Amino acid sequence: MGMLNPEKVLKKYVPMTETAFYILLSLDEPRHGYGIVKHVEKITKARLLLGSGTVYGTLTKMQKDGMITVFADEERKTVYERTDIGMLILATEINRLKELHENATKYGGDIDDYQNI
Prior knowledge:
Layout: H1 6-13, H2 18-26, E1 31-32, H3 33-43, H4 52-64, E2 68-74, E3 77-82, H5 84-107
Antiparallel strand pairs: 1-3, 2-3
Helix pairs in contact: 1-5, 3-4
């Protein structure tokens, strides 16, 4: 059935790679692989362009680990959605990123002085 122990999955995925984070984030609604690629491209203003090999490799791994599941198998397109474990992982990572942002803002000094170096 795959890895459904939340502790093991948390250890494996948090901190997340940016690719895994955006793939999981983009499953705020069921999407197929190409839909994920286009959504990530849009929300990162084309800063992050995911290759299909990367996306499908990550989706396969996440499915095996119980983070996502197949929502529907349409004609030649598999549509994925997040599971409860996937939501737990995403929430944990978002909280970690919030802490990073808070600490960067609090202790980062005047980073604006370095923006254009």
